[in-house]
Amino acid sequence: MFTFPKRLNLALTPTPLQYLTRVSAELGVNLWVKRDDLTGSTLSGNKVRKLEFVLAEAIEQGCNSIVTCGGLQSNHCRATALLGAQLGLKVALVLRGEEAGAADGNLLLDHLAGADIQMYPVREYRDSLGQLLNRAADKLKQQGCQPFVIPTGASDGIGIWGYIAAARELEADFSQHRIVPSHIVSATGSGGTQAGLTLGAHLLGWSTKVLGMAVCDDEAYFKAKVRSDMRDWYDRYQHMLSDSVDVEQCRIHVNDHYIGPGYAKAEHDVFETIAWLARTEGLVLDPVYTGKAFHGLVEEIKKGAMAGATDIVFVHTGGIFGVFPQRDQFDF
Ligand SMILES: *Cc1c(COP(=O)(O)O)cnc(C)c1O
């Protein structure tokens, strides 16, 4: 039905689909977790799936260095920094925010991976990200490198192949466990994971609802972002698609009620949910993405908003290193 473009083998896949026995019983639902936090140890999370396609494209274009961007504790930047080291590509990171004190979490790993790190005040980053990326790329060119620029979260028409591939993997999981899930739920931050899963579900003819739990921007923003990633995908790859695919037909579902105070900022109840899941199922979430999204899902279930659900699959997109910089927010 579709053939994949060039891809590097970087993620440890297939990842397990795991049933949450005690949480399902407590909430009165069938809740499964796709363990994409296990795509690697330091390379953990969803970004590795996207980078399999994006870095393949970079290498195909003859590039030997990467420029990308994100928050100070970006999982995407950490995965890119480590993969760059693994593949022998130089990596320059443009980060939003300034380091206070010793580098922790993902930022510590960025330093260890030898990335060239530039940090900018939030306002400057927000107002002139394009220029900052160009400046980083120019600097690499002056050093004789050939840079490839990856957008935030590797969410574009190339990166979303990662979660189209993950949808195919999920199809095998579903048949192995003999389930037909009514919902697939994940955190949405730059939209690529949701775009890939939504498009994958569409290409595979599923009736399953793919729901993105917004962690930063609102529903209108993510609906537009997910749609534009899909259009970018279609424009790039329509020549490879055997069936005609209408990306305008895909329904995009976003819940933006659990963003809380903002990106990487969570209310206390999110930290409580993280601690509850860790002690109930041995599963560790983070306060930036997965904890916020999972907390929202649990609240929706408790409110009865998921009534009629058969099996619900939560995609654990990783993010463990985001726990450590926010250690003070937990109480035990
Ligand atoms: C980046 C990230 C997300 C969000 O995925 P997007 O494709 O950017 O929407 C979710 N969870 C974790 C842990 C992430 O690092």
For the largest beta sheet, what order do the strands appear in spatially? 1-2-10-7-8-9
CATH second-level architecture of the largest domain = 3-Layer(aba) Sandwich
Briefly, what CATH class of the largest domain?
A: Alpha Beta
Domains counted in the coordinates: how many? Answer: 2
Give Rg in angstroms.
19 Å
Largest sheet: 6 strands, mixed
Count of discrete alpha- or pi-helical segments spanning 4 or more residues: 10
Oligomer: single chain
Q: Judging from the principal axes of the Cα atoms, what is the shape?
A: globular
Number of DSSP-assigned strands: 10
Mean pLDDT: 97
Q: Could you spell the SSE succession in H and E letters?
A: EHEHEHEHEHEHEHEHEHHE
Query: Could you tell me which ligands this complex binds, including any ions or cofactors?
Result: pyridoxal-5'-phosphate
Could you name the CATH topology of the largest domain?
A: Rossmann fold
Structural class: alpha/beta
Unreliable stretches (pLDDT < 50, length at least 5) are: none
Distance between the termini: 51 Å
Report what the structure shows:
The protein is α/β, with parallel strands linked by helices. The protein folds into two domains: 17-43 and 156-329, Rossmann fold (3-Layer(aba) Sandwich); 47-154, Rossmann fold. It contains ten helices and ten strands. β4, α4 and β5 form a beta-alpha-beta unit. GO terms for molecular function: D-cysteine desulfhydrase activity.
